[in-house]
Amino acid sequence: MDIKVRDSSSKSLILLNQDLQLSPIARKKPSVGIYSFDEIHDVSCVISVKSEDCDVQNDNLKGIPCMILSLIGFSCSSIVCKVAYMRNDYLNGLDYAICRSIIMVTCSMIQVCATRVNVFEVKKGYRLLLVARCIVGTIGMPCYFIAIKYIPLSLCTLIANISPLMIGILAYLILGEAITRLKVLAVIGAFVGVYILTLHKDENYEQGEHYTLGIILVSCTCIAITFVALLTRVLNKGIHYILCPFWFSMTTLGCTLSLLCVYPSAYHFDHMGYTDIGLFFFSGLFTYAGQVFKSLAFRYSEASQVAPLQYFDLIFLLLSDIFIFNAKFTSTDGIGGLLILVSLLAPIFQSMYLRYSVGRDPSG
């Protein structure tokens, strides 16, 4: 049996297959009927209903590529940053943070001017959420980079990558997004792949006195990643997608400049050369591109759909370690990477199949 949805802009009927998985909100609706876009606006379906009146479209054919491009941007940023650290031992995370923030603010200002978006025009109900998203996002990453000083990097990676599972659960409970068995199995499979990747990475590590502090800090990072994803998804329902990257960049720059005023000795500008500045420039450029594509991904797709794709970042970084930094490839790297890849591709192919099945002509 089909569900008929009336598109008020074109007066046409769109047929949605009732077999598709609907969210708890959608299940409260009658099984068959005629809906206006006001009624279907808050229903999270597997496929999208396109309309100019709809703030957020569930379109995985746009959301998934945007998330992958976002991860490529973040991965390239990490690779360039690692090259800078390897070249100059004096550089630290604070030097990188302030340079990256300046580049991100510059890029965001250019984009805002080009698109003529009023960044100060934020709907009243979304202002506090935008502030929370910027603050939580700014705090999350420093906690991670401090944590890796006190606990093994493999453990940091494992704890931080619990976030996609948390995002899927909370998106289902709070946002009413659809969740299927395949999505759950994909996230669990990818997480197991992460665990396999981290095996035997820190066998010679000795537990220090700040071990508990490291666990707490990386747990804060995991929570921060989760809430940034959920807040970005909610915000994109009522504000322009550029606003999140813009105000996040401004918040990060404000925090780094404040820290510079309080602890100027923590920075090492006198040891930075033109090559270091150039590397940080490109790293900041890649980071901003990642932020923009991430905002677009959460605009077009449900948080529970695109959040697990964050595991692709580990595959990109694994390949960079092998081909760029000459790291030794092990069997656990291959098994873990393959398991992550298979787990993440399964829901993508399912989404493409469902969209094709619904969109094709029934007459053949």
Automatic annotation (TrEMBL):
GO cellular component annotations of the record: membrane
Domain EamA: 62-198, 213-345
Family matches, as Gene3D superfamilies: 1.10.3730.20
First-listed, main subcellular location of the protein, grouped into a coarse class: membrane
Subcellular location: Membrane
Membrane topology: Multi-pass membrane protein
Regions crossing the membrane: 66-85, 97-114, 126-147, 153-175, 182-199, 211-231, 243-265, 277-297, 309-329, 335-354
Top-level taxon of the source organism: Eukaryota
One Pfam family here: EamA
Entry keyword set: Membrane, Transmembrane, Transmembrane helix
Protein's UniProt name: EamA domain-containing protein
